[in-house]
Amino acid sequence: MQSEPNRKWKTRMEVLVVSTKLGLTSFGGPIAHLGYFHNEYIRKRKWLDERSYAELVALCQFLPGPASSQVGIGIGVIRAGILGGFLAWIGFTLPSVIALVLFALLLKGYDISHAGWIHGLKIVAVAIVAQAIVGMGQKLTPDKNRVTMAIIAAAVSLLWQSAFTQVLLIAAAGAFGLGMYRKTTTVMDAPNLPIQVSRAFAFFCLMLYFGLLIALPLLGQVTGSEWVSFIDRFYRPGSLVFGGGHVVLPLLERELVTAGWVSKEDFLAGYGAAQAVPGPLFTFASYLGAMAKGASGAIVATIAIFLPAFLLVIGALPFWNSLRASSYIQGALIGINAAVVGILLAALYNPLWTTAIIRPEDFALASILFTMLVYWKVQPWAVVISGAAGGILLSMI
């Protein structure tokens, strides 16, 4: 029988290995990442049940920062404590950090945005998200009221595209669910999440989040330190952005290009490279840090832009179990879960479908990849390779 320390380290190493596999294969942006996470963590390994996963997604949608990275950190914390959350982040993030720093050193100014294999990876993302919607929709929208809520959420997401739309939709769906389902939740109890973080430490993390947000710009002005200013230019966008990686781009451009840290040409080249690598788009900061200050700049920029995500997730999770145990909160979560399905459905159309499915050949490839995932049960990494190869073939037609 394994000792408790050995069991804990085995669990942590499992988190690192699985998250690294996801970091090497999760193409397509934050919404696609949630599909990859769902397939690996929920469908295959059953680390969380469907409802708990959807609620974790909803919680991270409420928080500013990179939502998919926060979901991964949250799963790591639930599985193996704070160190598990750190290892989940390392595994998911490091591959794209390395790739983008290499782009900064070796592929400066090289335009790969129209390469056939990149287009194939966009089509892979369509198949991945479609699979997630089918799986989550069957469990989280089983009646006409919740299906209707999901469709309304999808329609509003598409017609009113704002950084705060998702937050408002989740809040409205929660209020609707509170009114309709709070009296029917006694037979729908979700398993208690094993959060291995004390409330005192969680409160400290929340205070540190706000403290750094206020102190860094003031400290930069008082000390005149170039490095403090550099950290602040990445910490603030990571702290204040709702909606994921693409939304942070204009803020980073303002902080770095306008200030003269990175040229506009290098910024755009790095953005093209960021579309070609797996993992979170926030690792674009690694590229920008490398361009501005070399390897040390890449490390500092990466830590600075992701630190708010850590502080917020660790600060929120310990309070989540007690909140979700309330019949009122559970009623709200039923509505929120339906809205999450709708938000995913909207993202399947825009930006994924509109940028990937341009002609009939693209739809044919997406259908094949979807069939491979859902019916043939092909491993996601093999589907990624097949999609990239298919994209190359399509570019020759």
TrEMBL record:
<feature type="transmembrane region" description="Helical">
    <location>
        <begin position="332"/>
        <end position="353"/>
    </location>
</feature>
<feature type="transmembrane region" description="Helical">
    <location>
        <begin position="298"/>
        <end position="320"/>
    </location>
</feature>
<feature type="transmembrane region" description="Helical">
    <location>
        <begin position="200"/>
        <end position="220"/>
    </location>
</feature>
<dbReference type="InterPro" id="IPR003370">
    <property type="entry name" value="Chromate_transpt"/>
</dbReference>
<feature type="transmembrane region" description="Helical">
    <location>
        <begin position="149"/>
        <end position="179"/>
    </location>
</feature>
<feature type="transmembrane region" description="Helical">
    <location>
        <begin position="86"/>
        <end position="107"/>
    </location>
</feature>
<keyword id="KW-1003">Cell membrane</keyword>
<feature type="transmembrane region" description="Helical">
    <location>
        <begin position="373"/>
        <end position="394"/>
    </location>
</feature>
<protein>
    <submittedName>
        <fullName>Chromate transporter</fullName>
    </submittedName>
</protein>
<dbReference type="Pfam" id="PF02417">
    <property type="entry name" value="Chromate_transp"/>
</dbReference>
<keyword id="KW-0472">Membrane</keyword>
<keyword id="KW-0812">Transmembrane</keyword>
<dbReference type="InterPro" id="IPR014047">
    <property type="entry name" value="Chr_Tranpt_l_chain"/>
</dbReference>
<comment type="similarity">
    <text>Belongs to the chromate ion transporter (CHR) (TC 2.A.51) family.</text>
</comment>
<keyword id="KW-1133">Transmembrane helix</keyword>
<feature type="transmembrane region" description="Helical">
    <location>
        <begin position="119"/>
        <end position="137"/>
    </location>
</feature>
